[in-house]
Amino acid sequence: MLSLLVTAVGCSPRGGRSGSRGDDDDAADDDDSVEPGDDDDTGNDDDDVDDDDVGDDDDAANDDDTADCASDEIEDCNGSCAPADWLGDGLCDNGGPDSEYGGNNINFACGQLNYDDGDCEATGDDDDSMDPCAPPLSILNCGTPGPVIGSSGWANPTIGAPPTSCSGVWAAAPVTRALPSGVVSAYVGYYGGADARPLFQYLGNGAGVIADTTTNPFASSSGGGVYDTHVAGAVMPMTPGTSPQSGCIVLWPSTDDTPSDGEVLFTVRPAGPTDDLIHINVGLVAGSGASQANFADSLYAAADLLYFGTGEGVDLYEAWTFYTISDSNLSYIDSSGSAIDSLRQTAMGNDDRTVNLFVIGAFDDSILGIAGGIPGPIGHQGYPTSGVVVAMEPHLDGNGDVDATYMAQTIVHEIGHYIGLYHTTEGSGSTWDPLSDTPQCTMSSPTPSGCADGGNIMFWTGGPGDDQSTLSPQQANVYVSSPIVQ
Ligand SMILES: [Zn+2]
Fold first, then answer.
1. Closest CA to 387 of 484, 287, 244
2. Mean per-residue pLDDT for 221-248?
């Protein structure tokens, strides 16, 4: 069933004049030349971690990270000190009132502690349709959640050695965090190295499960996570019904290959005024033919397209900074593999709450552009999927000039994926985005002229001269409320 997600988001390149706009990495990308952890510090919001800690003064967080337990105590699943001799004593300590100790309800019912060394049943796990190693629903009893996710980006310490495995699936212990109230939007992701295929669930206190990727594959597009080969993530809201709710977030990282380490990534946008700007780092790759002089018009056109297309005021206007990437070997590359991963790992500037837009000469498979996931690792630079890549050559007109309108449509399309928008209709004509206000085309090979959504920015394919300039109100809301907006 995991492969369904790949099918749902995949773009097959098309021949002829029309170009295909890719989504995210090919699942077959087995590149392991990128060492997990390399450059990750660049992508971590160290400053924000500090800020978060300062504001993280509720009791729920204080006893989590580095509890100083007595010699006859151990940390439970939530980091609370618990009597060591309760582990595997024949009684299931699952965070219930009978497990109270030192002011906390002790919870040993997690994979890290082998479910109280076998005392706790993995109950409720009656739907493993998404994953052969689906977590027991008991993990959704968050107990005492981990630290509060703060006012902006926050990166978790690395997840260490694998505590659990089953049916070829590697699984870390569930990670819990508390989401404060008043959050506009949030991103949660899991980086597991070259072959990460994460799976996770969310829980909102008092409101139950926000989205459950283990029971509903396409919940992946309504708030859960579509995995990538490197970073899986989800953004809230991804639909009108998936706005972040205060309470506990449960993330259950797993992959189909044993990673050497992993990291959990968070980006939270608090309530409050913004400039409604999406800041973009534009990386012009040497040898691509792109320059500030011939690319600026495309950015202005993208700003017009997004701002006036939505009417809701999110803007790109001059919120971009140009950078030069001197390695010309990165100008003509595959849309998956070590070269594009290396390119996207390039951090530009010091602000992680940006979108990296890399401009190359062409992809070997002739696509127009590709995003590092749906969503990509919003607010985190330096990962193999951090950013979107667009190609110059397919956007040149007969005179060799950049077709700024065409390029602008590709830029807004790919950033749309990066912030969590799917194709309105996929290339198969049999899967569609989860939004209720976008048309669904049922052509076997959907064309812009043959589909009601052919003029939508998120249509799966487009060519020069196609007017793809519309976003539905729900699509616009995903853009406007994105955690990337500053
Ligand atoms: Zn696309």
1. 484
2. 67
52-69 pLDDT per residue, tens = 222 222 222 222 333 478
Residue 3 CA to ligand 1 center (angstroms) comes to: 18
Q: DSSP of 216-255, one letter per residue?
A: -GGGGGTTS-B--SSEEEEEE-SSTT----SEEEEE--EE
With 90 as the cut, is the pLDDT of residue 72 above it? no
For residue 376, the CA-to-ligand 1 centroid distance in Å is: 13
Read off the pLDDT of residues 329-376 as tens digits, 9 standing for 90 and up.
999 999 988 899 999 999 999 999 999 999 999 999 889 999 988 888
Nearest alpha carbon to residue 21 among 476, 448, 312 = 448
- Is the Cβ–Cβ distance between 253 and 175 less than 8 Å? yes
Distance 421 CA to ligand 1 centre (A): 9
Residue 25 CA to residue 4 CA, distance in Å, equals 15
Name the residues around ion ligand 1, CB cutoff 5 A: 21
What does the block give as tokens for 22?
A: 């890719």
- Return the amino acid letter for 235: V
Q: Determine the distance separating the centroid of ligand 1 and the alpha carbon of 416, expressed in angstroms.
A: 8
pLDDT exceeds 80 at position 97: no
- Ligand 1 centroid to Cα of residue 427, in Å, is 10
Q: What is the pTM of this model?
A: 0.71
Cis preceding linkage at 259, omega within 30: no
Burial label for 18, CB within 10 Å (0-12, 13-18, 19+), is: middle
Residue 226: predicted pLDDT: 43
Ligand 1 centroid–CA 333 distance in Å is 18
Rg (CA), the chain: 22
Distance 365 CA to ligand 1 centre (A): 14
